[in-house]
Specification:
four-stranded mixed beta sheet; binds inosinic acid; globular; Adenylosuccinate Synthetase, Chain A, domain 1; 20 strands; Adenylosuccinate Synthetase, subunit A, domain 2; single chain; alpha/beta
Length: about 425
Amino acid sequence: MNIVVLGAQWGDEGKGKIVDLLTPSFSIVARYQGGHNAGHTVYVGGRKFVLRLIPSGILHPGTTCVIGNGVVLDPQALFEEIAQLREVGVEVDGRLVISDRAHLILPYHRERDVFAETQRGERKIGTTSRGIGPAYEDKIGRRGIRVGDLGDPCPTVPVADRVREQVAARNRLLGGTPLAWEPVYEQLVTAWERLRPWVRDVSVFLAEARRAGRHALYEGAQGTMLDIDHGTYPYVTSSNGTAGGVCTGLGVGPGAIDGVIGVTKAYTTRVGDGPMPTELLEDTGERLRKAGNEFGAVTGRPRRCGWFDAVVVRHAARVNGLDVLALTKLDVLDGFEILRICTGYRLGDRTLTEFPAQLGIVATAEPIYEELPGWAMPVAGVRDYAALPVETRRYVERIETVTGVPAAILSTGSDRHDTIVREGSDIGAWLRRG
Ligand code: IMP
């Protein structure tokens, strides 16, 4: 069994916790896209871990963590993360595999990211300034430098020449004090010495692992609505966080995917700019932000908060072929008298049931809400479905109806154990096997 865990909204859905929960049933956890713009938060024994690049499976001894070719890798960010893990006694040696085809993020990518945002002015995307977009631009523009290029014994164009050309292009674009290419290159040479033992062909590694009967969990970063193709373009990240990204980002065929879990909050959040139809700009939004501690794991920015948007999650269900939902942060809704679920958008006299591609339409359309009663008894820490208040169960079941996807996992708190796995779902079988 190989499964995908990905975000069904705009990222920050709680994928880290779900991956962490499922990891004991899998011996491999593989990232297939994004970079250190992601921030997967996991709480174990009350201790908080924020993982940006290395899959959250690293917190489970014996799990192999894979960084696929679809990821863009900043070596310095990786080394910092490894150092932080070592401080708490987590060793990565022998457990980390990095694709030789993954593209590198270099200092000029970070500068170009900031520059591009300044150029966009009012229409800025609100990127994480980590150089993600420019690194993918260079990949698609066929100028990028891949991890494996650093160790290529017979390069067509030496890496030093490519760095020199890229830095010269950066200097022409940005002006100001020119960047010297030599330190950038020297840093890469040093980085290669450290990276070398972990680097290999990930597609071959995963094929061998499958033949050996090992099970892989594919971990998505960001979310469906931030996907470069299926998200709210141009207010998106530069990679495919949707299920299709697994095949291209790891070098596996569609048959290597047996199930897809879409992680979604019991409400909606978004960090950065771009449309968000159910955003609440008044007190209720602030209340959700406080109750859910909705501040970015990577940048610390306050997240925009709003009601659950079933149009968004239905879109995610379709483009990813979701088998089940993992519904997180139910406890954040504790104490709300009335809850709302957006089931469609009103555009003039039309009702839209699918998320439109045109952002003008998204901006003009009004959410259509259903109201449900909230629950008086807190659900924080409840670990049994039957012990949830009837109103909570009604809310969950309504979400299942309007999205068309069963909510197999419910999360009622940040700890690994504050989780309900619903009876009758395949997920239960996967967990028990672990
Ligand atoms: P970039 O990925 O840094 O280029 O940022 C593009 C957009 O994606 C911005 O709106 C970011 O806030 C958003 N974004 C990137 N990574 C994450 C994430 O892990 N969670 C939530 N939003 C993200």
